[in-house]
Amino acid sequence: xxxxxxxxxxxxxxxxxxxxxxxxxxxxxxxxxxxxxxxxxxxxxxxxxxxxxxxxxxxxxxxxxxxxxxxxxxxxxxxxxxxxxxxxxxxxxxxxxxxxxxxxxxxxxxxxxxxxxxxxxxxxxxxxxxxxxxxxxxxxxxxxxxxxxxxxxxxxxxxxxxxxxxxxxxxxxxxxxxxxxxxxxxxxxxxxxxxxxxxxxxxxxxxxxxxxxxxxxxxxxxxxxxxxxxxxxxxxxxxxxxxxxxxxxxxxxxxxxxxxxxxxxxxxxxxxxxxxxxxxxxxxxxxxxxxxxxxxxxxxxxxxxxxxxxxxxxxxxxxxxxxxxxxxxxxxxxxxxxxxxxxxxxxxxxxxxxxxxxxxxxxxxxxxxxxxxxxxxxxxxxxxxxxxxxxxxxxxxxxxxxxxxxxxxxxxxxxxxxxxxxxxxxxxxxxxxxxxxxxxxxxxxxxxxxxxxxxxxxxxxxxxxxxxxxxxxxxxxxxxxxxxxxxxxxxxxxxxxxxxxxxxxxxxxxxxx
Length: 513
Fold this sequence. Notes:
The protein has 513 residues and is of the alpha+beta class. Helices cover 40% and strands 24% of the residues. It has 18 helices and 23 strands. Strands 3-9-10-16-13-12-11 form a 7-stranded mixed beta sheet. It has a 5-stranded mixed beta sheet with strand order 20-19-21-22-23, with helices on both faces. The mean pLDDT is 92.
């Protein structure tokens, strides 16, 4: 599947066929950009969340957890700037009637220039072999210099125009670059307009007394308004962090690309409070830490890259994205931001409550600065799932579809398979399953020939298949088959727990960091 579009379609159909992701309300023709996690998807999602939580909270004695409510006092969103400034620049194509994010159209154009440059670099690397000096080539090759210079110029201009809210220039840039509608090929565009992304709702017993509320568009503000409560009750000292996972809601007008951009999604965020003046040191620290966490899952270093922001949010003095190579190209997976003291100061001003820390070492009070790490759980799910899905050609020429999920994240760790449905083999298999289920999520499968069962477990992503046969009755051994290599070995039933544990233990995986 060399064509990225075909690969992405395969990802979406596999996710449904094997019980990972369903379209929400599908029997009523679905709801756009809203999805349900099915029986295997909910397990994979839970395992990713737990892998993040253990790395972020359990492994750091100065980071604690929080679970703030989705509903918050409406002034929260005034203070945070969301009421006035939480907008996307949207543009409509007059011929196709399709709506797009103007910044994404420009970014996609700039990425094509980058891909052209990378193609030239790859060709040269192949041509020159070991003698290839990439740094020198990138700075001297006229084509590469031109492509990268054009890309940087375009992104800087867009960043400046968005920062200055010069939407007319954003449209001018789209027209100058002759960007066409991806659906119709038309270049007949409307003006660019800002659209607020928050969902409104009401709370109260009657229409007369109801208060206007918003569904939270991010989880970070729940941490900021609880800063003083957590700090005092936990007797936390700077630097310290507060971590949270939970749902957020954005009225994405241009929601597409499956679970990559949804209207209801889940975030995993940590806000790290530091002394003013030390924020950039901690910003670099967390960029490095988060990158290590991603690499520990073994999805391939080449699939990640850092992207420093050309346009900084109004609250930030440094920001970078960890981008991942999804089937549709490199896109943001996680953001690391130095948010300065904007949030706590804004909530101080709007609430009239002090949100400061008394630093005994410095003998003074101050509003801490904040480093944020924010990752989309759904995007992480898509990164893991799309990378894991592989179509392998075997030695005998046959093919197998295999979901090579990191075993620590796999929904089911082992499938217990009696070779046949008689001679007492199912009873032994059931006993093994009942022994293992206290420690691992395991399944039982006795339908079809053993080879077909292996293929089914490969496609669902189960790391181990344990086969019970007639020899098991004599020597208490079983055949364990490894998903990724298809290797099989004979082991004692009593050793199964330790073999599986070694491969799927979160502790063993996190030690790779």
